[in-house]
Amino acid sequence: MLASVSFPCPQCQVAIEVDPNATAVAACPCGRPIALHHDAIVEGAVVACPACGETLLYKQKDFRQAVGCIVVIIAAFLALKTNYVSLGVAALIDWLLYRLSGEVVICYRIACKAHVRGLSPGPKIGAFDLSIHDYYRMLARREEQGLTGPDDQTGPPLDSRAHH
Ligand SMILES: [Zn+2]
Ligand SMILES: [Zn+2]
After folding, report:
1. How far is ligand 2, taken at its centre, from the CA of residue 27, in Å?
2. Looking at the CA of 7, which ligand is closest?
3. Which ligand is closest to the CA of 31, given by its number?
């Protein structure tokens, strides 16, 4: 599977998808060049966001990749035209969906949310964590207000690096 990173252009929000191994600077149709972070990929594993350099990322099953396979499987079952398998089909599809889907690594930054496919997640990348997501939502709100960094009440997500 080819490696790819997809993210919105920081200037015009158009979706950009490039191979982070083969691309140093992504070109957007709006003319803005976007330099990719090459230290984001270490020995084929994602350790940071190739688009924005953020080091907090999460991984989840990539259903986009699996859906294409499922269409073929459903077509095969329809071709059988046998009723007795129908009960097992739903369970089987669930199982196959899980088995066939690869992992996608996603950037927590609200403005970026880059999706990285075809590369293995680095050792620090865990499952989606709502508390980290909330932290980044708060940062994004403050960015809209022209502020930087966390507010006074909220510290950084302390456990985010510890338990992955
Ligand atoms: Zn653009
Ligand atoms: Zn990012």
Report:
1. 17
2. 2
3. 1
pLDDT digits (tens, 9 = 90+) for 19-49: 999 999 999 999 999 999 989 999 989 999 9
Ligand 2 center to residue 109 CA distance, Å?
6
Question: Domain segments of the chain: what residues?
Answer: 4-62+102-154
Find the DSSP H helices in 49-145.
63-80, 86-100, 130-144
The edge-to-edge listing of strands for the beta sheet with 120-121 is: 41-42, 45-46, 120-121
Query: What's the rounded mean pLDDT across residues 114-143?
Result: 94
Please report which ligand is nearest the Cα atom of 51. 2
Which ligand gives the minimal distance to the CA of 109? 2
For residue 56, how many other CB atoms are within 10 A of its CB?
A: 22
Can you tell me the distance from the alpha carbon of 55 to that of 69, in angstroms, rounded to the nearest whole number?
Answer: 32
59, 60, 65, 70: CA torsion to nearest 10: 160
